Amino acid sequence: MKFRFLHCFFLMLATALVYLTSCVIPQMKTRTYVFKEIGWKINVPVDFLIEEPDNAKALETSRKKLQENSSDSITWSPEISFIKVKKDEANVLSSTIASYKLSNEKNFEEQRYKSLLLVTNTFLNQPEVASVDTSRSTVDVGGIQFFRFHFNVKYDNGLNMHTLLYSRIFRGYEVPFISVIPISKPA
Q: Tell me: the pLDDT tens digits for 78-94?
């Protein structure tokens, strides 16, 4: 059975970023960034640099890891590098978009669910991961409602990593992105 995992980049990126950390950003000065491809605007903190995304190696590594953890064949859609925002090595947000046939929108929920199960299993198959807790909700980002999936990955050494995956179909594109929240040691 073949799946289309259009937002899989961020699911894969979550696996690739297991050891990276990030920080929660307090209220600060921002500048507006416009995604020309889809006409969406977001605010980016002024101390973050907007870079040209260069994630081909991480993407390929993550794809291999996900394929190893799936018994099904995965079909990858052509992706457009969307944005990479970076403060330092530990504070990075990266996204790609892929065109999505709106006639397939009914299957989108099922595909997203299967993708999230795959990522959860990929985390669980790492020897140093003790457990993975998940939750889901809907949130507003830049005036647009996104599905949000939260992973709390607990490692054997006591560290916790919180990863938030966001996705939705918007103007004919699947728009997923990821946010990694600090790895913390429980008190």
A: 556 666 777 766 566 66
